[in-house]
């Protein structure tokens, strides 16, 4: 008998992928596409290292899922993402026909699953997606906040170093 895993279990898998993104200098977002309690595909953010503005964790997982299932329609699947999807990713989810989205942290600036706009349940769309937000939200938010805090500190240290070098040269 196959064990049934919870949304928290799969979100932890997505968080592990987000940590891989962070290790590569990317914004820590991870995504896992699941069907019948099995991973179909997964991905993490790669737009910086891949020089590709579309290389979000969700897009990578959806692309790989289509290849794995040999179908652009990813029916009866759930996508687990550590951060609420943006408009681009939400549009791709609608077109792929996933059944459910489960996300961790909300994104008040660009979230397209209800925080800023709700693409996934918009009445004009030809497919609507069940949304469950806030799964391990605190852990996902902390990961992102820590990343951006560290990035700000690195930029601040770099500015300070450059200023000191300029003063030496004067």
From TrEMBL:
<dbReference type="GO" id="GO:0052717">
    <property type="term" value="F:tRNA-specific adenosine-34 deaminase activity"/>
</dbReference>
<dbReference type="InterPro" id="IPR002125">
    <property type="entry name" value="CMP_dCMP_dom"/>
</dbReference>
<feature type="active site" description="Proton donor">
    <location>
        <position position="58"/>
    </location>
</feature>
<feature type="binding site">
    <location>
        <position position="56"/>
    </location>
    <ligand>
        <name>Zn(2+)</name>
    </ligand>
</feature>
<comment type="function">
    <text>Catalyzes the deamination of adenosine to inosine at the wobble position 34 of tRNA(Arg2).</text>
</comment>
<protein>
    <recommendedName>
        <fullName>tRNA-specific adenosine deaminase</fullName>
        <ecNumber>3.5.4.33</ecNumber>
    </recommendedName>
</protein>
<feature type="domain" description="CMP/dCMP-type deaminase">
    <location>
        <begin position="5"/>
        <end position="116"/>
    </location>
</feature>
<comment type="similarity">
    <text>Belongs to the cytidine and deoxycytidylate deaminase family. ADAT2 subfamily.</text>
</comment>
<dbReference type="Pfam" id="PF00383">
    <property type="entry name" value="dCMP_cyt_deam_1"/>
</dbReference>
<dbReference type="GO" id="GO:0008270">
    <property type="term" value="F:zinc ion binding"/>
</dbReference>
<dbReference type="InterPro" id="IPR016192">
    <property type="entry name" value="APOBEC/CMP_deaminase_Zn-bd"/>
</dbReference>
<dbReference type="InterPro" id="IPR016193">
    <property type="entry name" value="Cytidine_deaminase-like"/>
</dbReference>
<feature type="binding site">
    <location>
        <position position="86"/>
    </location>
    <ligand>
        <name>Zn(2+)</name>
    </ligand>
</feature>
<keyword id="KW-0479">Metal-binding</keyword>
<dbReference type="GO" id="GO:0002100">
    <property type="term" value="P:tRNA wobble adenosine to inosine editing"/>
</dbReference>
<keyword id="KW-0819">tRNA processing</keyword>
<feature type="binding site">
    <location>
        <position position="89"/>
    </location>
    <ligand>
        <name>Zn(2+)</name>
    </ligand>
</feature>
<keyword id="KW-0378">Hydrolase</keyword>
<comment type="subunit">
    <text>Homodimer.</text>
</comment>
<keyword id="KW-0862">Zinc</keyword>
<dbReference type="InterPro" id="IPR028883">
    <property type="entry name" value="tRNA_aden_deaminase"/>
</dbReference>
């Amino acid at each position: 008998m196959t064990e049934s895993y919870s949304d928290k279990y799969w979100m932890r898998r997505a968080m592990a992928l987000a940590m891989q993104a962070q290790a590569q200098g990317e914004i820590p977002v991870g995504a896992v596409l699941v069907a019948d309690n099995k991973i179909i595909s997964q991905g993490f953010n790669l737009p910086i290292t891949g020089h590709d503005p579309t290389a979000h964790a969700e897009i990578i997982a959806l692309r790989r899922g289509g290849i794995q299932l040999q179908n652009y329609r990813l029916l009866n699947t759930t996508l687990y993402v550590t951060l609420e999807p943006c408009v681009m990713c939400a549009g791709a989810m609608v077109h792929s026909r996933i059944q459910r989205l489960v996300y961790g942290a909300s994104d008040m600036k660009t979230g397209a699953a209800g925080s800023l706009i709700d693409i996934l349940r918009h009445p004009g769309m030809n497919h609507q997606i069940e949304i469950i937000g806030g799964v391990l939200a605190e852990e996902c938010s902390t990961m992102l906040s820590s990343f951006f805090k560290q990035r700000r500190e690195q930029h601040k240290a770099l500015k300070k170093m450059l200023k000191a070098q300029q003063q030496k040269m004067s």
